[in-house]
Amino acid sequence: MEDNRNPQPTKASVCAIRKVTFTLFDRESVLRNVCTGCDTTKSSSFFKKPSFKMPNSNRLATHAGSWYTDSGAELNRQLNGWLNDADLTFGPARAIIAPHAGYRYCGACGAWAYRQISPAVVKRVFILGPSHHVRLSRCALSAVQYCNTPLYNLKVDQQINQQLESTGHFKWMDQKTDEDEHSIEMHLPYVAKVMEDYKDQFTIVPVMVGSITNEWEETYGKIFAPYLADPQNLFVISSDFCHWGQRFRYTYYEEGSGPIYKWIETLDKMGMDLIETLKADSFSEYLRKYNNTICGRHPIGVLMQAVEELKRRGHRMSFKFLKYDQSNQCCDKKDSSVSYASGSLIFE
């Protein structure tokens, strides 16, 4: 993700194409850091069971005032504008994929996913986001009671947390780890806005998804499948798409593909097309082939595995991407950009 506080994006219509090479890298290390430019990560020792029986704390909106405005009135105006500009074309959504960059970059794109939600039926919102700051080989739950936003505070569902913990496959975030991570927080204002007429009638379930294997994606998919089948539940999958440029250690480009930014779009849309098929193995193979730096690849994988499980039980679902954007149009290997995509899953 770009620096979301003092960015200087540019739009170029004509680009001189130069040869760009594919930089080999430790993909999981890069994916932990791409949205912040961090060079180090903390160990998973930050994930532990809370020392208290019932949480009594609030998660602060630590990215308000930098990645998005901390003014409730201004935030409400911005979200209203973006939602009004988006069309309701593929709803009601049971799950959405939406970006987690600073709102000046992806606020308008994210609205296309949130516009597909029917808030009147939603009683619980699961938010699955990747870990950018700590090493985590499983999934982790939030130990707080409320998540603050400049609009109003969102209640964390303690009963569902207990159910998930009882599977033995979930760890716990301490509050600092929780507040350092932006992938979940960036969705909280949008959830609050869309659900504002029902603010006292729903809860949230924040889940940090680590760098898990395909086998663990399948395990978590089976755990979440019954919740996804419930029409009163909504799943928010937090992910940006390609992080391209030397700062992200990813400069893959196929010669003859036109301007770099067009190649990036082609690369992203190959992955998006596979997500729309709802075939988890095909998406995994695409990631192995191209190493595309989709930072929410594991939350997406968990969703796709949950869908696969429900298809085996006879459910019919469809997914469609509705909006795509880039933070910058790359024309040279010295440029960088992050891609954003928003889509909706419906039950037929």
Automatic annotation (TrEMBL):
Belongs to the MEMO1 family. NCBIfam families: AmmeMemoSam_B (TIGR04336). It comes from the Eukaryota. This is Protein MEMO1. Pfam families: Memo. Gene3D superfamilies: LigB-like.
